[in-house]
Amino acid sequence: MPQIRITVGSLQFMAETHPDAPHTVSAFIGLLPYKQKLIHVRWSGEGCWVPLGELQLENDGVKVGFENHTSHPSVGDFLFYPGGFSETEIILAYGSCSFSSKMGQLAGNHFLTITEGKEKLRTLGSKVLWEGAQDVLFELA
Q1: pLDDT one-digit tens code per residue, 50-104
Q2: Where do the domains of the chain lie, and which CATH numbers do they carry?
Q3: Can you tell me the distance from the alpha carbon of 134 to that of 125, in angstroms, rounded to the nearest whole number?
């Protein structure tokens, strides 16, 4: 599975794509390199998210739906929420996290897992919480 490098300021992480989310992974890789803003979650606990608004990921012309989805990501897991009750987004758990919005609990596709740099996730979460939105870059390693 492809490796993704994630850079937020001076912090760098490596992540593996998840084989149980092939449509999400394929569509996301098609966006790379991808630069966006990472902000702190409001309802989900210890996590950061990338708001994607109305963006619809597509794989071979078909909108990415739910696959390998969960509401309870582990530390270092990235979920992709394809939209519906809330806007499309990517969420990263850096601590205890239960994926939610003002509409209630959500589930997202677990498509990436941090494999290197996990020990820096708490630093990342604190930086985003106390210093505000941070630039994040996703690219093939």
Answers
A1: 998 888 888 788 889 999 999 999 999 999 998 888 888 999 999 999 998 888 8
A2: 3-135 (2.40.100.20)
A3: 10
- Number of H-type helices and E-type strands within the chain: 2, 13
Q: Which distant-in-sequence residues (6+ apart) come within 8 Å of 140 by Cβ?
A: 2, 3, 4, 5, 29, 32, 33
d(CA 80, CA 84) in angstroms, rounded, equals: 12
Per 3-state DSSP, the chain is made up of helix, strand and coil in percentages (nearest 5) of 15, 50, 35
- For the chain, the average pLDDT equals 93
E-state strands within the chain: 3-8, 11-17, 34-40, 45-53, 58-59, 62-63, 69-70, 77-81, 88-97, 100-101, 104-105, 108-116, 134-140
